[in-house]
Each structure stands twice: as C-alpha cells, then as structure tokens.
Automatic annotation (TrEMBL):
It comes from Pelodiscus sinensis (Chinese softshell turtle). It is found in: Cytoplasmic vesicle; Early endosome; Late endosome. InterPro entries: Spe-39 (IPR040057), Vps16_C (IPR006925), Vps16_C_sf (IPR038132). Residues 70-80, 89-98 have a biased composition (Polar residues). Pfam families: Vps16_C (PF04840). Its main location: cytoplasm. This is Spermatogenesis-defective protein 39 homolog. Residues 177-274 form the Vps16 C-terminal domain.
Length: 491
C-alpha cells in the first residue's frame, strides 16, 4: 500500500501541470494559477471561439482536436510515449508556448457543424469520420433501428412484422421449404392481408405446377388465392388452377360468366347455346337452359314489337310507348312486359303471359303479383277482378288470392285505385284487426261501419261517427244502425 501511495504521489508531482496535493502548502499562489489554467483548458474544449489562448492537457499537449482525444483514450491502456513530456520541464509551475496541431477539427466545431477553417460540414460527413465514431459512439444510430433493415428474420418473425405493418423483404426466402414455412406461419396467425401478400410472392417466384401442388393440401391459402385471382381478373391462371384441382363445375360456371361481357344479343345467344354442353351440376344446367330459352324468346318478341310500334298497328303501343328494349332483361321483367302489352294473347304465342308461366314454371304467387302490378298500372280493374275470381265445381264464383288480400289492397292503392275498388278487396281481408286498420288508413268508411256493426260494438261506432263528415252518407248510415232496435249491442 505504501508503495502504491508513493507511486501516485510521484506521478502527480511529475506532471507538467502541477496538480493539487495536500502536502504542498508552501506555494498557494502557484497552486491557484495551475487550477485556473486547468479550468480554462476544460472550458475551451466546448468553446472554441477564443483562438488566442493555448489549450493544454494535463500531460502538456494542446487540446484542439478529436484526434488528440482518441490518442489520449488509446494511451490509457499503454505506456505514455516519451515525446509526451517534450517541451516542458518536470516540476515546473509555468508552461511553455507550444504550437497547435494541424487538425482542423475540435469538439466545439464538431457540435456546431464547422471546422476550424470556417467551412461547415454536415452531420453525415461528421459521422463518416472514423475518429468521430470512436470518440462519440452515442451519436451512432441505435442498434435497435438497424434491426428493421436486417435480412436475417425467421419466417415467424417476418410474418409478425408484416402484421405490424413493417417493411419486410421476402426475397431472402429462396428455398421451397422456407417459402412454405412462411405461408404456413401466415395461415396460423389468420391474417388475410399477410396471406395474400405471401401468395403474391409465391405466385411470382414458383412455377405454377409446384404452387398448385402445395396449395392443394393448404385449403385456407387455396381459397385466398382463388378469391384473389377472381378479384384481379387473372382468368387464365384461375382456369389452370381449377383444371389442376379437377373442379369441372366451377370451370363451367366461370366460363358461363363470360356472357356478361357480350353485348350483342345474337352473339350472346350463340354463346349460351354452347354453354349448355358444359359440365354443370343438374340444377345449374336447368338455369343455363332457361337462360338460353328466355333470350331466344326475347329476341323474337323484341323484333315483333318493334315492328308493331313503328308501323302504328297496335293501340297499346300508341298509348303507352315502350321505354326500353326487353333484350337481356330478367324473367320477372319479361313477364311484367308481357302482362302489360300482351295480356290477352293466346297461350300458343311466345309473348303470352300464360305461355311464359308454363314454359318457365313460374309460381302462382309470383305470377299473381306481376300480373296484378301490370294490370293495375293500366287501371284495367276488370282484369284485376278476373285475376282473383275462381269457380268451384258447382259453378259458384269466389275470390281467392294466393298472395293475401292485404297485399292486393296495397298494390291497388299504390296504383291509385278508386275507393269502391279498394273497399271490395279490403272486405276480403280475413283478420278483423288488419281489415279495420286498412279501412281506416285508406278511408274505406263503409268497411269500418259494417265491421263495427257486425261486432255489435256500439261505443266504437259512436266514436267513429265523430270522424266522418257532418251530413255525409256515412253519418246517416251510422245513425240508422244505432237506431236499429233489433241489434243487441255488446256495450
């Protein structure tokens, strides 16, 4: 311990800038000067504006550059060079004037962005200096940021980063095994966007035969790819995939959809005729056949009606000119058109509503609704009445509506049917509450009065008397019913 203490004291006493010790009490003024110089040297490290003053280290070297700092750092682990003590005598309390080193950098110029020569440098230029990086490592980019640009991510880590929206390069995954691991990880996290992004990468980097083979045992990824190809319109690749999977019905439906892009009616009919031979399921085959038959009918009806309209031979076309062509219209629209313009035609004609009903097996409810809307629009009330009138085997007539008379009333009212027509069908509504509600809503007063009379509800009848016009036929009718002594009222 004594030896170490002696060495320390010898070191401090041998410094060119004499340090403070407890043993030196004989020269207080000299100690004060040395301390002042040391403080000024530290201050000048961060303030380089005063070039008139020399800057010294404790060893006597000038402090003016980063290179000095690096050498000082390196010398701490090795013996000090002999030239370190040159220019100053041991134990002296004064300093000789030493020339500055030729370095053009100082700490103050480094942080202020300029060198001693007065020229400015960018921070990137400063960071490119090896000495700067060694001396000030805190100015480097944090290591955590470099991880964002690392190419050494595992498939699992890559998928997690993609979920967080980080930019990841998939090009480093070169082997088939790595690519499939990447896809499996994406499927495991149930993220559709990540699955789609990886599928796009696989589609670009793998042969389609290999891709199809691997996706065949990965149904989730397969569904994603099929949906993606449909959305992007890559028909050729989609057809190749469906053929590989031997999905003949899907191939047929996919080819059938091409008719949507054919505008010409004759060309579309020929295309549909060829689609009939495709391997559809039994149910889909019926729909394709009906589609072809309907378009064929529409072409015939359109040509005939265009001729009748242009020649002026039909009164209904004069009174109600056609607003659009019937070509490529749905079946219900075609039926409405037929009920509107060709309602009275014989069943043997292509444009007859009954012919369409029988050919395409239209349900009774659908036929009733469509025919009612067409005839009510024309205000053909006799046709409406005949539509719901049926005869039993004894010859008695009765009104029957498969759609319910409450719906008949609503359709008639939308087409501005007169009150006497509405009242006739409101009476046929079986539910009493619904009948009263419809009668009050559409002001069918006779129906309301007769219903309350049949219910023998005197109070409701008297209350309704206040709702009709004073001196009207409805008010007189209510008064006659209320004065009838033969009715046994419930209240």
């Amino acid at each position: 311990m004594n030896r170490m203490k002696v060495d320390e004291e010898e070191y401090w006493h041998s410094s060119k800038c004499k340090a403070f010790t407890f043993d030196d009490d004989d020269d207080e003024l000299s100690q004060l000067k040395e301390s002042k110089r040391a403080v000024n040297s530290l201050r000048d490290i961060v303030d380089d504006d005063n070039d008139d003053l020399e800057k010294f280290s404790w060893s006597g070297e000038p402090v003016g550059s980063i290179s000095w700092s690096i050498r000082e750092t390196a010398s701490s682990s090795s013996n000090a060079p002999e030239g370190r003590d040159s220019g100053v005598q041991k134990g002296s309390s004064t300093h000789a004037t030493l020339p500055k080193q030729a370095s053009s950098y100082s700490l103050s110029s480094f942080f202020k962005g300029r060198n001693k020569l007065g020229s400015f440098q960018s921070l990137s230029d400063a960071l490119s200096d090896t000495g700067v990086k060694s001396y000030a490592p805190e100015l480097r980019r944090p290591k955590a940021e470099y991880k964002d640009y690392s190419s050494d991510w595992s498939p699992k880590d890559t998928v997690r980063r993609m979920q967080r929206g980080k930019i990841c390069s998939l090009e480093r995954f070169r082997s088939l095994q790595e690519k499939l691991m990447l896809l499996d990880e994406a499927v495991a996290v149930h993220d559709g966007n990540v699955i789609t992004a990886i599928l796009i990468f696989l589609k670009r980097t793998l042969k389609k035969e290999i891709l199809f083979r691997e996706l065949e045992v990965r149904q989730v990824a397969l569904h994603h790819l099929i949906h993606f190809l449909k959305e992007t319109g890559e028909q050729k690749l989609l057809l190749d995939l469906l053929r590989f999977l031997d999905r003949t019905e899907e191939i047929a439906l996919f080819q059938y959809r091409e008719h949507l892009s054919i505008q010409d009616a004759e060309k579309r009919r020929e295309f549909l005729k060829g689609c009939i031979r495709l391997p559809f399921s039994s149910e889909d085959a019926i729909h394709v056949q009906d589609h072809y038959t309907l378009l064929e009918r529409q072409i015939i009806i359109e040509a005939n009606d265009r001729h009748l309209e242009s020649s002026g031979q039909s009164e209904i076309f004069k009174k109600y000119p056609r607003k659009a062509s019937i070509l490529n219209m749905p079946l219900v629209t075609t039926l409405f058109y037929s009920c509107f313009y060709h309602y009275t035609e014989a069943e043997g004609t292509f444009s007859s509503p009954t012919n369409l009903k029988k050919t395409f097996k239209i349900p009774d409810k659908q036929y009733m609704l469509t025919a009612l809307a067409a005839r009510a629009k024309l205000r053909a009330w006799n046709d409406v009445d005949a539509l719901f009138t049926t005869k039993n085997w004894l010859g008695y007539t009765k009104k029957r509506a498969p759609i319910g008379f409450h719906r008949v009333v609503e359709i008639l009212q939308r087409n501005n049917a007169p009150v006497h027509v509405l009242q006739e069908y409101v009476r046929l509504v079986e539910d009493i509450e619904a009948r009263l509600s419809l009668a009050m809503k559409y002001k069918c007063h006779d129906v309301v009065i007769d219903t309350y009379r049949d219910l023998k509800d005197r109070h409701q009848l008297m209350a309704y008397r206040c709702k009709v016009e004073r001196g009207s036929a409805e008010e007189d009718k209510i008064d006659n019913i209320l004065s009838n002594m033969q009715i046994r009222w419930k209240n």
